[in-house]
Automatic annotation (TrEMBL):
Keyword Isomerase annotated: no
UniProt name for this protein: Gamma-glutamyl-gamma-aminobutyrate hydrolase family protein
Signal peptide (UniProt feature, chain positions): none
InterPro entries xref list: Class_I_gatase-like (IPR029062), GATASE (IPR017926), PuuD-like (IPR044668)
GO cellular component: cytosol
Keywords associated with the record: Hydrolase
Keyword Hydrolase found: yes
Domain of life of the organism encoding this protein: Bacteria
Chain segments annotated as coiled-coil in the UniProt record: none
GO molecular-function terms, A-Z: hydrolase activity, acting on carbon-nitrogen (but not peptide) bonds, in linear amides
Taxonomic placement: Bacteria, Pseudomonadati, Pseudomonadota, Gammaproteobacteria, Aeromonadales
Glutamine amidotransferase domain segment(s): 55-177
Length: 197
């Protein structure tokens, strides 16, 4: 099994006076189905401790998971920016899912914009990647920097998937872990990103 660092959403439970890192168990099930072993990372680690964690785990891949909008919780934004800087410098294969793709776009200098009719729906995408996918997002990529190529758009032209030109890194606006049974197409695609296929 290959080792996969997975970022977590932040949930604020006011009734308990708690702020929690959280990860949908289906994300972990999806990683295992792809042949990986998930290592969730906390959003409370400072930069030095996070780098220590990354060097200790020596991940074969990174997944930036969904949940939260960018700007909702600075601790999560900081964690993912630091992980992306490290993953890029070490060329560690990376997948951004939904918010994860939004973070890839923002981190690399692209622009997000609000989209309509993309929450709790299914729609077709086309391009290098053609499929019918689920959709649970309120923000999409308006543009991507030259380091990335667009590999899928919705029928109305919204950017739905991107790939980096010289680093094994993709962003998908859909949630592969929310389709049951898991699609072999997405499991295989992630496996190939990790293994260089």
């Amino acid at each position: 099994m290959f080792k996969v660092i997975v970022t977590q959403r932040v949930d604020s439970l006011k009734e308990r006076n708690e702020t929690r890192d959280a990860l949908d168990q289906d994300v972990c099930r999806w990683v295992v189905a792809a042949g990986g072993l998930p290592f969730p990372v906390s959003n409370v680690l400072d930069e030095a401790t996070l780098l220590q964690y990354l060097h200790h785990i020596k991940p074969d891949a990174i997944i930036l998971s969904g949940g939260n909008d960018i700007g909702d919780f600075q601790c999560r934004d900081n964690t993912e920016i630091r992980i992306l800087n490290w993953a890029y410098s070490h060329k560690v294969p990376t997948l951004g899912i939904c918010r994860g793709m939004q973070m890839l776009v923002t981190w690399s200098g692209g622009i997000l914009h609000e989209v309509t009719d993309h929450v709790g729906k299914r729609h077709d995408i086309y391009g290098e990647v053609t499929a019918n996918v689920n959709s649970f997002h309120r923000y999409g990529a308006l543009s991507v920097p030259e380091a990335f190529t667009v590999i899928a758009r919705s029928t109305e032209g919204t950017i739905e998937a991107i790939a980096h030109r010289d680093w094994p890194c993709e962003g998908w606006m859909w949630h592969p872990e929310r389709d049951f049974p898991f699609s072999l197409v997405w499991l295989d695609r992630f496996y190939k990103i990790v293994m260089g296929g």
